[in-house]
Amino acid sequence: MAMNNKVMGHGGSNFRGAGAKSPMKTLKRLLGYTFSRYKVATAFVVLFVLLSAGATSIGASFFAPIVKELIVTPEHPQVDMWVIYRNIIIIACVYVAGGLSSFAYNRIMMYIAHGTIKKMRDEMFVKMQRLPLRYFDTHTHGELMSLYTNDIDVMRQLLSQTIPQLISSALTIIFVFSFMVYYSAFLTLVIFCVLFIMLLTVKQIGGQSAKYFLKQQDALGALNGYVEEMIEGQKVVKVFCHEEKARERFKELNDNLNETGRKANSFAFILGPVNNNLGYLQYVLVAVVGFVLMATNNVGVLLSGYLAGNTGIAACAGMLVSFLAFSRQFNMPIQQVTQQFNAIVMALAGAERIFEMVDTLPEDGGGEITLTHGECAEGVWAWKKPVGGGFEFVPLKGDIRFENVVFGYDDDKVILKNISLYAKPGQKIAFVGSTGAGKTTITNLINRFYDVQSGTITYDGLDIKSIRKDDLRRSLGVVLQDTHLFTGTVMDNIRYGRLNATDEECIKAAKLANADSFIVHLPEKYDTMIKGDGANLSQGQRQLLAIARAMVSECPVLILDEATSSIDTRTEKLIEQGLDKLMEGRTVFVIAHRLSTVRNSHAIMVLEHGEIIERGSHADLLEQKGKYYQLYTGAFELD
Length: 639
What we know:
Helix content is 59%, strand content 12%. The model is unreliable at 1-20 and 635-639 (pLDDT under 50). The protein contains 20 helices and 15 strands. The relative contact order is 0.10. By secondary structure, the chain is an alpha/beta fold. A hairpin with a 2-residue loop joins strand 7 and strand 8 (462-463). It has helices at residues 23-35, 39-61, 63-70, 81-130, 133-137, 141-183, 185-232, 234-239, 243-295, 299-302, 313-358, 439-446, 469-474, 490-495, 503-512, 516-519, 539-553, 569-583, 618-624, 627-633, and strands at 370-373, 381-387, 390-395, 400-407, 416-423, 428-433, 454-459, 462-463, 476-479, 488-489, 529-530, 557-561, 587-591, 603-608, 611-616.
């Protein structure tokens, strides 16, 4: 099985599968994504939010009869304590019911939010496995990690806290507004005058805050990417004494994050106190206006439909107390909404980035031709090609040919120029040349990590574009220069080449690669845990394990990209015999700077600026006394 090791980044392109950014579209999509999966739970959330908002609003209406009963007038000479107790009990029951409803919908929303986030993480990871390598060339590891941490976390807060609070606040505003109009349309108009000022404040201050919160999230992703890069390359930083320059760049990114965060939170912190003070101003204004209207006996202006003909001072006072309570309840959800404004902006920014990744076009799976084992004949690998209503089996031999291949990672920069070559089954083809000549690019094209701009690559006479990528890569064993080991045992890392390989097969592959000699001296031998990309192993040992991983795959085609670059000369000679046995009957592509490792190749291709300038066997090329001769004799060295 081919290993999907990382390749070096080249160029980039736009991977967006969606249209331009739109906060409302993003919010609509997020809500649809969330609540469509939890329809029953959502119904209960709506029910409990209605009960909570209704209880909060209705409770204040019972203050009026209590105040009315407490005021003694000639028309009302005696206080009825039962009326007071009854209304107090009703208020207590209403608020308890509201509190329980609030607790219930918050718990349900927490369940919905965490379920949604789990599902989203699963889908993100599955999608990430299907993305083309070009996507990872244009996005840093830190940026991708930020999707799984920062962006997901702000979305969790949005779903579990902000959205239910927004719904509750909206319903509370509707209920309270209805009561206020019923009690006093004139005082409601006074409240709306102050509310208009509040909305203007939110628009001005909140708009600035939102702008900087978006910049803060982008700055955070950039900082995470740089920190991840520095951690991974810490040895290189120290070797080249690059600490001061690294600190300067980190300070630049950190200062940018600090500046955007400071501005974002400055506006956010201003918004809350301003609205609170406007709310207190509104409360005082309503109380003063109401008292003046009562004192001047302008009850007709003060009241709407509440008193229904009863215009006594006690009733007016009760109404005013309830209305003041309503005014506070009306302001509270508005303030809550403004306080959550920044959380909404940050969450939508995070959701936009996540959906951008999810909407990225996945890697094309390839054609209809698949790889089979034992289907046409026992123990035989073959390509299964649909023909008419049936299938045709093409034996897998490892015959690979390039015909006039042109390729560039960017459309405006061609790397390979009209490359034509062939590798017959069982041949060993070597590529030599300066860095950047296009050697690794050729092997990337065989794997279909990238597709050619023009020309064709055939595998056993089949255009590789017609072969499913999974099956194509399953037929290739690869050892890349950039070795990557996964967290797990030594045995697990070797078995990564073929997941159904037995322990005996893995050990055999390790011995063939000469890795067994150091594995048996590890604390737990083949059960030794590897962590941190093999930090407890030397670079040479890590590469030996990568070679063993390719050996256990039993693929008919091998690609060795500087497979022995980190192995000392003695160890290299020891594994040459094993590699020779491994390569028997297999097509092998070798990229090497050590020309001693390619001398026994059937054909050696010398590349320069994306073109094959010399080809032939070791002896033939030495006789030509061209570029290869200069490289081999040391008259000219590789870059």
